[in-house]
Amino acid sequence: MTTHIFDQLASIGVVPVIAVDDAKDALPLADALLEGGLPVAEITFRTDAAAETIATIAAERPDMLVGAGTVLSPDQVDEAVKAGAKFSLSPGIDADVLKHAKTKDMPFAPGIMTPSDLQLALKLDCSMVKFFPAMPAGGPKMLKAIAAPYAHTGVGFNPTGGVTLDNLSDWLSMPQVRAVGGTWIASKADISAGNWSHVTENARQAVARV
Ligand code: 3PG
Fold first, then answer.
1. Which of 35, 60, 104, 130 is catalytic?
2. In which element (H, E) is residue 44 found?
3. Whose C-alpha lies nearest to ligand 1, atom 11?
4. Which ipTM score applies to this complex?
């Protein structure tokens, strides 16, 4: 199951990382992304509206691959499962959270920034990890160096943090990178202004570079 969901993310190539303040924006947001050809959203648990937003999208837009981001505790894993999230991610790695996600069959990509983080992720059976914060940590060159000794494990990477339309192709040209992520596609400013056509345009431009 885990492989299947992450394969779907890999075939899409870009995951919008989104903080939603008001769950009433859930459907216009999902529709704007769908219209731009991007049937995926990582809704982060950085706002109180996250669970309701995920639940609304999961129930009303079944074609959308909706996941939970910034999942920091076993309780938030439970909230993500209950809301209908199809995958979860976090900026860092926490063994308790990963073990709990496994008992719930929740595909989980933890964040890593060092070889030691990556080895912990592999020990905990992760097939995909976030590389965070991707650009400040050293960009594609850094990830290439970190990933090299682990190529035989088949682990895939989702770089986020400083990824933009301009550097997206540099990341996706690396075979280990399954999909990039970032907040630029559906920014807080566009969501709060209801600027859905801009979200659609950003999605379209990103998809065109995959
Ligand atoms: C994340 O959690 O993936 C990051 O906040 C995304 O970083 P960005 O704002 O630089 O895209």
1. 130
2. strand 40-44
3. 182
4. 0.90
Write the pLDDT tens digit of every residue in 76-129: 999 999 999 999 999 999 999 999 999 999 999 999 999 999 999 999 999 999
What tokens were used for 191?
Answer: 């969501």
Give alpha helix (H) positions in the chain: 2-12, 26-35, 50-60, 74-83, 95-103, 115-123, 139-147, 168-172, 188-193, 196-209
Give the chain's radius of gyration (CA, Å). Answer: 16
Q: What does the pLDDT look like over 21-54, one tens digit per residue? A: 999 999 999 999 999 999 999 999 999 999 999 9
> Could you tell me which of 56, 114, 87 has the C-alpha nearest to residue 179?
87
CA distances in angstroms from 40 to 68, 77, 95, 99, 131, listed in the order given: 11, 19, 26, 25, 19
Length of the chain measured in residues:
210
Question: Topology of domain 2-209, per CATH?
Answer: TIM Barrel (3.20.20)
pTM: 0.96
Does residue 35 have an active-site annotation? no
